[in-house]
Structures are given as C-alpha cells and as structure tokens.
Amino acid sequence: MIHSQFGNSYFLLSDPDLSGSPPRRVPPPTDVTRTANHVTFSSRLDPVIVEDIAASGEEFSPKHGEATCKNEKFPPLGLPCLNAGLSDDDLCASAYEILLASLVFSGVEIHTVEDRRKERNSKLLSGLKNRRGKSHQQFQSQGRHSEIIDIIRIQMQISEAMDACIRLRLTQFAARTMCRPIDIPQVSLGLLSGMLKSDFQNEKSYVQWKSRQASVLEEILCFSADLEASERLTIKNSLENIRNSKEWDITMSPSERTEFLSAITQVALKLSSLPGKFSIQSETYYWTADYKLNIRIYEKLLFGVFDVLDEGQLIMESNELLMLIKLTWRTLGITQKMHNVIYGWVLFQQYVGTDEAVLLDYALLELQKVISAENNDGEEHYMDSLTCSRQCNGSERKFSLVQSIFFSISSWCDSKLQDYHLHFSQKPDDFTRMINLVSAVGVLTPGDLGDIKLINLNAMNESATRKLKTYVERSIKSAYSRVASTIDLESKVVRTHPLALLANELRLIARIEFNVFFPALRHWCPESGMIAAKLLHQFYGEKLKPFLGGVSSLSEEVRSVLPAACLLDHDLTQLYISACQVNRRHDHLNHELDHYPIGEVAKPLILEWVIAQNSRLLEWTGRVFDLEGWEPLSSQQKLAASAVEVFRIIEETVDQFFGLNLLMDVTHLQALLSVIFHSLDAYLLKMLNQLVDKNHLYPLAPPLTRYEETVIPIMKKKVLQHKLLEDDVSKKLNELTISKLCIRLNTLKYIQKQIGILEDGIRKSWALIRLPVGQGWAKEGHLETSESSLLTCGEAVDELFVITFHSIRDTATDAISKICDLTGARVVFWDLRDTFLFCLYRGSVEGARLDSVLPHVDTVLNHICGLIDETLRDLVVFSICRASLEGYVWVLLNGGPSRSYSDSDIIIMGDDLNLLKDFFIADGEGLPRSVVGQEAKLAEQILSLYSLQTGTVIQMLMTASEQISTGLDSRNHDKMGLEDAQTLIRIMCHKKDRQASKFLKRHYQLPTSSDYDDTPSEDSDSILKSPVISDLLKRSSSFHWTKGQSSLKSFKKKLQEATSDIRNMAW
Question: Model-level pTM greater than 0.90?
Fold first, then answer.
C-alpha cells in the first residue's frame, strides 16, 4: 500500500521493481472523492490539474513553435447532467460490473478464484494428455476470455478481491434469475441482494460500494418521467434505507431488506417492460430514458483500451477487449454507429490528453465510419433523440449525439487552427491530420441567424474557404506578433539589428507555411499561400520602409538588414508564386508582390564598396610585395608568401562580396573582376619590373682580329675591355639569384593554378546570385523576351571572365617565359661565364674542351631541380640548354684573339657539340632529342662552315657583300644568318689559316690577334679599332644586331667599298 499526500492508498498488483516507469497520468485533485480500487479518466482534463501541469514547466512552447494541448479546457460533450451525483470513479466501477454481468448473461463463463485453480489443473492434465478435440478448443477459448477479463480488470484498476466477489455474486444471480436481457437496475439489485458486508475488506469500502449502487438506482428510477408519484416515493424511501448503514445492516432483518429490494425490483420491471420508441431490435425502455448514463458508462469501458502505464498507446489486446465490450451494447443501448462515434470521441479525448498522433488517426478512422455508414431510419431517429445541449453565442442549442461530438471536436480544432503556427510548427504531420479531421466533422462557421453551424470542408464552398482564410490570417498575425514582441530584447542580447532578426524569423515562418501548412491547406483553400505571403510581406515592409529611407552606406547594420530582407522577399515570392500556380483559376489574383526596393538602394552602395576595395587591395598588394624576400614559404611550398597573401585577401574580398547576399547585376560582377585584375596585374608587373634584360648578361664581343703566328713578342699589347653595368641593373641582378628566380617561377605557377580555382569559385557563386526583382519569374507573354535577356546576360558574363582571367594568365605565362630565359642566360652568361665562355677552347681546343665545363652545368641543374616546381622543370632546363648552345655559338664566332681553330680542331669541336646535346638529352630522361637537335642546328651549321676551304668561304663572303651593295639582301638584319657577311667574317677571323689572315689584312685592315692581351677586364669598355667593322660589333648579344642603330648602315657602306676593291685586284 502506498500513501500519497492526499491520504489515498493504492493496491499494488505487481512488483514495482519489475513494472517499469510509473504512469505519467496526473494525480487526482483533492476535491474528488476516490476509492482505493478506482481511477477516473476524465479527471485529466480538470482545470486545477491543468494549472498544476503548467506550473511544473514540463511543456515545450517555443516562440513560434509548439504549444501543448493540455493548457486549454476541452469542450464538453453536452450530455444532460446526472442527478444522483455519480462521480467518474463510480461510473468506472459500475462499468466493470455491467461488463461482467453482460458476459455472464451472454453465456460467457467468468471464472471465480476457485474456478481458475481448477482451470490451471485442467490445463496441466490437458498438456499431459495432449488432447486436441473440440472440448479442448472450447476450453482454450474460455481461458482466453478469462485472460482478457483479467486484463480489463487491471486496466480499470479493480482489486482482485473485489473482482472475485463481484464475479461470484453475478454468477449466482444469473443462476437464480430468468430475466433476459439484463439491464442496469437488475445488475445493481442483484448485487445488493447477493453481496454482504463481510465480502469487503473494510467498512469504508462497503459503504462506498453500497452508496454507489443506490445512486445508480436513483439516477435510473427516481427521475423517470414514467413513474407515478407513489412509486417514486417508494423508491426514494427504499434507497434512503439502503444508504443508512445502521438501519440497513443492523436494524433490518434479511427478510426486511429483501422486501425493500423487491419493491424497487417491481418498479424496475415495470419500466423495463415498457416498449422502445423506435422499434429497433433489442431496444429497451432504458435506451432512451437513461442514455446520459449509458453513454458515460460506455465511455469508461472504452477508456480501458489504453495502457495504464502509457496512456498514449493501445494495449495489444485492444481488439479482443472491444469484442467483449460489444456484449454490453444490448444493455447500454449501443449500436454500431453509436459505438463508432463514441469510440472516435474517446480516442480524440485521449489524443488531447496525451498528444499521441496515432490516436488522432484512429479517431479519424472511426469518425469516417460514422459518416460513411448506411442510414437506417429507426437507428437515425434513435440517435437523433439522444440530445446534447451546447451554448452558442449566449443561447442554448440542442444537438444529436453525433452532432455534439462533431461540434466538440470541431470547436477544439478551431481553437488550435486559429493559431496553427503555435500548435503545429513542431508537429507538421499533426496539422495534416487535423485538417483531415476537420474535413470529416465539418468546420465551424457563423450561420445566417447569428448562430454557429458545421459545414463540410469543400474548396467550392465559399463559407468554408472563408473560414480557412481566417485561420491563415489569424495564425500569421499571431506568429508575427509573437516574434515582434521579443525581437528588440533578442536584438540587444545577440547585438544584431532588430530588422535583420525579424526577417530571419519571418523567413522561418514562411518556410514552415510553405513546407508544412500550405501543402495541407491548398486542397481546400488554394489562396492560403498567397494570403500568408502577402501578410508577412506587408508586416515586414511597414518596418523596413523607414529604414531604407535612411540608408546611405554599407554600414554593419545595413549589411545585416538588407541581405536578410532580400532573402525574406525571395522566400515570400516563391511561396506566392507556388500559390499562384495552384490557384490558376483565380486569374485576378495572379500579380506579383510589391517587392521591397532593396535593389535600387543597394546597387550604388555595392559599387561604392567594390571601388573602396580596389584601393585597399592595391595598397595591400604593394605592401606585401615590397616586403617579399623571395624565400621559400616552407620546405614543402617553395613559393613566395606574398602571392599566398594576395590571393588570401582577394578571396576574402570575393567572399565579402557574395556574402552581401544582395541582388546584383553584371555591373557589380564587372567591378569585382576589375578589382581582381588590377590587384593581380599589379603584382605581376612589379615582379616583371624586378627583372633585367638578359642582354645585360651577355659580354661585349671582343674586337675582330686575324690569325698570325707571333715570332717576336710585343712588349706592349692592347687590352680587351668589358662593359660595366649600371648601378640599378647591377643591384637588380644581385637580387636575381638562381634560387630566387626559381621561387619566382614557382610563384607564377601557383598564381596560374589559383586563378583557375578563383575563376571557378566566382562562377559558381555568381550562378547562385538571384536576378534583380522583375526577372525572377516572367509571365507567359514575356517568356521569350526573358529567355533572350538571360542569354545575353550569360554571354556578357562569360566575356567578362574571359577578358579578365585570360589576360592575367597571359601575363603570368609571359612572365614565366621571361624568367626562364633570364635563368638560362644567367647560368651560362653570368654565373658560368668564367668557366664556360672565357675558358672553353682558350689557347687551344685540345687543352680546354667542353668536358671540363659540363660538371659545373650539372651542379647548377641539380640545384635548380631541387627548387623548381615539377611542371616547370623541363621549361627551365630547356632555357639552360638554349643558353648553353648560345654560349657555344658565342665561343665559335666571338672567341676573340685567344681562339683560332684549325681543321683538326673542328672535328674535336663537333664531338664536344654532340657531348653537349647528349648531356641535355640524358639518355631519354631529359629533354626530347628533337628539341635539342633543333636548338643545336645553328652551331652545327657554323661548324660546317669552318670545315669549308678558305677560298669557298671568301667566295661566299663576296657574294653576301654584293647582295648588300646592290640592296638585294632581304634577310632580317636583326639576327645573323648562316651565310651573311657577319657570320662569314667571324669565321674568317677565327680560322687558323694564313690565306684567311692575308685576305682580312688586305681588304679589312684587321689587326693580328697577337696585338691584344686577351685577359678579361671588368672595369673598362671594349673599344673596337677596326674602321670597317667597329659599327658591326656594337651589339647587345653574341649574335644579335641592335635595331635603330647607325652601325648597320655604316657596315653596308664599308662592305660596298671592300667589294669594289676585291673586284679590281687579286687577293
């Protein structure tokens, strides 16, 4: 026994440790008298309990979310009140007794405790003998009935002792009475005559039980309109004696008690013999006379299908329980249609109390059975006679049972649908169920006479549609009011502008309306989505208009409010469009929302912001570039940190740009791409400006001399002089080491990769940008024009991307090419000039061959390959290969006084050239053989000229000179050709041949090589003394001529004079 704070005690029917969690049912109020054996089901709706629940704080009620069903009083059914003061506990106990009596008088055996002991023994014997005959099957059926009855007892919380006593007395009563069918007065009289005070555990239980039986008889008999005054007085006196424990149990003898009960029995039999009013089979007088009690008792029986430990769930045996309850129909005047409507009502009440959605589905199923049931005149008239009273607009109205239940359900649904955003935002499926339920029972609408009536929910019914519109309007207004009432306080907490928060909250409301409520409402009210969208748009527009009037820049507040307002406008437009598409038959409603003028306000502000970013980016780019030391970012990332920083700030700007979430057009994109272009272009130009022209690296060509063996040494020789670099060039060159050039190349490759990534990201982000208002959706008449505009816009966008990023790519590619050329030139003509240019073949070919130079080149290549990006390696190696072959040609043509080549030397030099080519081919692992061969072609051709006889070379020189003199030489003079005069004179100068020396002395007055001391000097310029060739040799590379100089004209003139002399004399 458990003692509660109310002083009540409860019997434990099972081990509490094994029974799981306790019931979540609310405890009974203190003003209700309860027995130890009974539980009331209707008390869960008591207002006192509702207040207790609300005070506990267990319900969840968010700002525009869910509200529990328990904080509102459930509308009453409107049955006439009971006059005898029967409580819910009394009704529940009487319901169980009537159920057992109905089972007994229907021939279903209800075993007593002694019978169940015998039953267990019989099951044991049956199992041992393994009987499978008809008697065994019947025994199993009876056993199952007994199990279901026990379940009902537990569900209705009847103690086992009381249950055994009632079963025994009802079985005895059925054995001695011949009346069929049984009715409620007979059950009560039978129990009063059979049960003794000794059958109860205490006197209090006995007094309560006896008083309840008297109240039941009083309710049925005393207030019957068909009794005479004397009969009514007899019953009242008899019932007073029954209630008087001293008089009934002590003073009266058994015969006197029997006499009083007999008097009541006579009156009851008289009433039960009266005919029914509607000629329904098995109808009795009590069907209509006491329907208010019958229906209440039947409700208590139906509440037994819910699990006492989890009242939102039906017990597994609910169907079998309902089959047994069906046996009470004849006693309580229940028909199939009545059962369906009462059971649906019970399920609906349980849903309200537990919020278990599946119960709503079950309730709807039962109510739909009522609607679809075939009409039976007698049964319809009978059910219409079961009236209920309701207060409507201050006046009382009478309804039939079905109408009253439908009215109560619709009233409760109406109270929820008035603010469906509050009650169903967190339970979207329940909203659909609720709409289906309202469509079944009808919707409450005002009548013509000021009353309230139920009408079927139909899209063609204007009254029903108007009601649903009212639900939408009121729910949207309530949701907006809830949000608006707290937005200022929330704004202070999160430090965000109230309009931004309000827009976000209204977007949530719009999304819920669009995804949850509109799909359910559009079948009955297609305009619901349009109404919701217009209302939300209107409410927010009233708040936004003053704010837009004061916007002058993209401040933090503006950047938070405008995107939020823009997104809200977009979402509401989508909701409105969808509603319009569903509602095509209402053409007059198909017009656009009056959009917020966000685009007009935002467009100039966005452009101003982008322009401001341009100066910021250029300043930041210049700053990080000036700080760049061209050291590797890390051992894994061998690139400049400045490039990473530039792209970081660019990506940050792009993110901020698209993070504005505002309506944009091509002008804004053009401005953004322009900012990106100027930033990257500035970076690349700064990098290019740090470079030096590779021509500065080429040494000045030494003076042309003719070969002659020196017999008498000259004490004073002319010294070869070399050019000095300007200070700024020298300073730049000192910073352009091979390592730093490689870092620059890696950085340029990184820029190329990041440009592609940046372009893809911007394209994707731009694709998500919404078109300006008016282009979001076009009417059918302008569809073709809209598609054409979109196509033109897309072409313009593509052109912008092409212009911007292809230009940057071209600049980066050009920079890579220049740095690669500079790298090769620096390796050969600067870093290795002493080893390569000034040592190769110096003095003699045999003593200074190429194999002594290649290890130095190999060392440089290994160093570069360890620094350079894999994708650039071949390009850099190729530049070194080209520069090496250029250097080799320089040695062949500009070797100076210390180099002269005999015919035997040319063979050795050919081998060296092949060695150089093989070095870069690297057995197929280096550069392609065809590429190297193409670069070495000029060197091979020059060697082939050295192999010619001196006379042949002289003849070729004369021919080339004649072409110059006659103006027939159409070749490009910016670059030496293989058979032009420049090349041929140099070959003659380096030939170790007396004939060539004699020719050069006679016709060009060239000095001998022995006149010069060919020792490198770093501090003087080269001064060429030959009057004929001085202008020819003033050039900026080993075999290139400089444009725009007068040396070319001078050289032509001297050649013409020499050619004239050659014609007139022998050489």
Answer: no
